Every structure is written in structure tokens, then in C-alpha cells.
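[Automated response] Your request has been received and processed.

Submitted sequence:
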Amino acid sequence: MTLPSYPCTYMRGGTSRALIFQESDLPGHRADWDDIFLRALGSPDVYGRQLNGMGGGISSLSKVAILKPSSREDADVEYTFAQVSVTERKVDYKGNCGNISSAIGPYCVFNKWVKGEGSEAHVRIFNTNTQKVIHSRFPLHNDEVIFTGDLQIPGVSGTGAPIQLEFLDPGGATTGRLLPTGQTQDLLKTSQGQSLRASMIDAANACVFVLAKDLGLRGNEAPEELNRPDLLQKLEDLRLQASVTMGIAANTEEAKQSIAIPYLGLVSEAYETGMDFSLRVIASGQPHKALPLTVSLCAAVTAKLPGSLIYEILKSKDQNEIRIGMPSGILTLNAKVEKRHSQWVALSGSFYRTAKILFTGRVYV
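Generated structure:
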């Protein structure tokens, strides 16, 4: 029997990779998408390697983007992100991926959805998961997208052309509110009854940040050091509790249906010069080898909210750029936050990535 196949493009965006599909090439019923994406990436895989598909065995290499031209006045393309579990039969559409967002603009120019003119392209992306608009700017040569350049980003070998992403009005991407609990700091309880301080913030994606030291951690651990079943279960319990507290899920059983949202971040003071604080993230049940970009943006916003754990670590320093230490280096972001009518508002967040087209063709499922 011949295997069914679908046109797709395989791209790296930042420190992630994804299969990119045009929505018109997929079945009209979205309920049929999950099985296609699972088979295409090789999930679920009890061995955690996704050998039967295009996935790479870790959350950052098990992703899908679905695109279509937009009829919105404020966007050129509509982009839906899907996080595919490596080991479970789950596809999560609750959040966005900042890294894969960096691939969308170049894809549109490469495929002539957006006309490239002059020396710089400007593609307006509407992310359907978060209902937010992202502006992507990147260089052109002879009206064609350029992938080669001099920018090196932590976690990726070699260099590429710079892609600037600006997330507009990122607050409330998941819950509709920048501060889902109304506070910049709350208490969560571990399964052992220990109370932990937490900042639950929703900017670009909903995140819960806790102090690494409160869990007996240094904060500068390599991902392999965090890959302990007992620790990961404790962190997952906190993440599920945060999901309910933030109003994302009605109970912990419902919270389990989302493998990614909210993300959980372990924050600590800087352990090297050149960084403002350290961040380690659990993504889809795994310690991330770099940082999810939406979590980084959320952390940068959190750093500017008085009373939050990250604001306390920074000792209230007022700075434009936020430098976050992660397993593969230091990431620099900008976040704009201001108070309006006694409410904190996240105006925007921006950072640079690189991207690369790896192949275009058909994926057999």
C-alpha cells in the first residue's frame, strides 16, 4: 500500500526545526491534522528518538507550522503552531513558538507570498494560537531572501542573516491577561506540601517562574543535570497547579492535556558576567537545551514588573536590554512595559534570530 504524502518545507528557525505545511494542502477538517503531524514526525516513540519520522527526539525538533495567506488588514500571513509530543499521542495548539516564528517571514518571501523589494523585507504575521501579530524584518538581495550572514545565535553552529522579530502587545497571549492572577508574585505548593514563591505571567506564552534555589538547585545546571525523573515530576506538578491557578485549565486533569502551556522556568542570579539572570526551562516535559523564545520574551517582560521574582533578582535595575543566561550562552532581548490606569501593559518585545530552509518536497506519513 502506498503511503500518503503531503507537500511541506523543512526549516530551522532559531534553535528549533519544524515541518511547514500550507493549510490548503491539508485536509479541510482540522481533526484530521493531528494524525498526519504525529506520523510525519514519528510520534509517539517509546524510545524517544522519533526514528520513524522527521522529529529529533526533543521538543525543539518536534514542531509543525501551518500557514495560509491572510485577509486581515494587519497581517500578510496566518500562522498556526503545533507542538508534537515525542512520547505521547498529543499535539498541542495552545501556545506559539518564538523560534519557529522567525522562519515564517523568510518562508513567505521565498514562496512569493510576500513580494520582496529593496534591501529589507517586512512580513506581518498573525499567530492564530495567541491571536497576536508579529513583525518580521530581514535582509534581501535582488529582491530575494538571504539566509547567509554574520549573526551567530547561542545554540546554533555557524552564522546566518539576522531576522528581527517584534511581538506586538504580547500580554495575555494565553489567558487574555498579562497578570492572570492579578499579582506579580503568588504561592504554589509542591506535592510534598512545600510553599514556593512563583511569578505567573502571560506574555507571548503563559509562563510560571520559580526560584531554582527554592528547589535545591544552583540555577546553572546543564539540561542533563535536570533530567531526573523525581525532579521533572515535581516540576510537572507545579506546572499543572500553575495552569489551574492561572485559569488555563479547570483542574489538573485538564491541565495535562497541554504538554507545553504554561512553560515552567527556573530563575536564579547571574553566574557569569554579561548576563542579568539565569533561566532554565522545562518544555514539553524535557529540560530545554537553549531557551524557548516566547518564554525568554515573557521573562524579559517579567523582569520589568515590580514585585516579580525576576525583578527582585535584578534588584530593580532599570534597563532597556535584558540579558538572559541559558545552557547554550546568553540571549539579549528588548521588552517595553508601562503602567496605564494602574494596570501593567506589555507594549512589545523584540529579539534577533536566524533561519534556514533545509528542504522542500513531500513528507510521507
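Summary generated for your ticket: DSSP finds seven helices and 19 strands in the chain. The mean pLDDT is 95.
If you did not submit this request, please reply to this message.
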